[in-house]
Design a protein that fits this description.
6 helices; 9% strand; single chain; globular
Length: 148
């Protein structure tokens, strides 16, 4: 027997998930007032998000993206020089980033110039860096640092 939903009680199962994939129903706000964005993410979207984080999980690729964010557009050779990496290594990492829609390119003769695909890339990395640095402050406190 299903109990009615209400404050402090979960909604009946059939209204929380609309299918076996785990996608949330659409339309309107949930009880928290946060809307669809706060609901469960379907398997396809969760896999795509995980793929982006796997790609950015490589320190060299993170460094490449941060270097791209500091310039409007930059050539492979200039990126290699800035990051002290070989051009072939930079090209390899850029092709992975491009395949996942994180960077775009423009060819001019034999040179290829790269740029972040859009401002979401900056936001994603800035938030992640803020989270990491916030965690570092928590680690210092836990290790006996001053919590003030």
């Amino acid at each position: 027997m299903t109990q009615p939903s209400g404050p402090g009680r979960p909604a009946p199962r059939e209204s929380r998930l609309d299918d076996a994939r785990g996608s949330a129903p659409t339309g309107g706000d949930d009880a928290s007032g946060r809307g669809d964005a706060a609901r469960a993410v379907d398997v396809v979207d969760a896999s795509r998000v995980a793929a982006v984080f796997r790609v950015l999980g490589d320190a060299s690729r993170c460094r490449l993206v941060y270097a791209l964010l500091r310039h409007d557009e930059i050539s492979v050779g200039d990126l290699a020089a800035i990051l002290c990496m070989s051009e072939s290594n930079v090209s390899h990492h850029l092709s992975v980033l491009r395949a996942h829609g994180l960077v775009r390119f423009r060819r001019e003769g034999k040179q290829v110039f790269y740029a972040p695909d859009d401002e979401h890339i900056r936001l994603l990395l800035d938030l992640t860096l803020a989270h990491v640095r916030h965690g570092d402050a928590g680690l210092e406190t836990a290790a006996g640092g001053d919590a003030r």
